[in-house]
Amino acid sequence: MSLFQLYKNEDLSVVVSELLIATADSTDPLVDGSVNEVLAALRERLGMDVVFVGEMVNGQRVFRFVDRTPDAPALQAGSANPVEETFCQRIVDGRLPQLIQDVAALPAGTDLPSSPIRVGAHLSTPIVLKDGRTFGTLCCFSQAPSPRLQQKDLQLLQQCAQLVARKLELAESKGVRDPVPNWSLEPMEPYESKVWRLP
Question: What is the DSSP string of 171-186?
């Protein structure tokens, strides 16, 4: 049983808080695999179809981690598209709010990206590293609107983005500066490496 499975969904913020503390200790073997589980549980708890970590690099938004329902759009880790065609860039720029219950209900003239994927509700927050760099975003979306999304859900997403940022900083401290397209938040070998899985 994993660290995450010991908690109920309503205590997800407690799990994230404890993992944030644990990331300060790079020898903690429970941290790495739990990050993936927390992101998957976040998607389930919020009732969203997809959760992903997107890196903004060289004018592209690259999917670095994706968890989705079986019937959700088939986004793949490692795939990319121009960053200006994304909700992510608009949220980082402040052109769109981080919490959107119903994309179709946004005011006329809102600067929405053209997307081949139907997006009904969208929740996103920047992943900001300690030195002030924006790595990218942590996003959730559903194909249908979700009027039940609240500010507390965005706060939980922001907390998870801090956890991802800590993992990135830990990887960088171990000399991994450019994650490969198929990196994982899990270690290659349990109880050893605390950085992204490398080829």
Answer: HHHTT--S--TT--SS
Distance CA 63, CA 184 (A): 11
Q: How far apart are CA 105 and CA 114, in angstroms?
A: 16
d(CA 16, CA 1): 17
Q: Output the CA–CA distances (angstroms, integers) from residue 158 to 89, 98, 118, 199, in the order listed.
A: 16, 10, 24, 30
In the predicted structure, residue 190 carries a pLDDT above the cut 90:
no
| pLDDT cut 90: percent of the chain above it | 47
Q: Report yes or no: 32 and 48 within 8 Å, Cβ to Cβ.
A: no
Identify which of 68, 72, 67 has the alpha carbon closest to the alpha carbon of residue 144: 72
- Under 8 Å between Cβ of 185 and 38: no
Its sign, for the CA torsion 108, 52, 177, 15, is: positive
What domains appear along the chain, each with residue ranges and CATH number? 4-173 (3.30.450.40)
pTM of the entire predicted model: 0.78
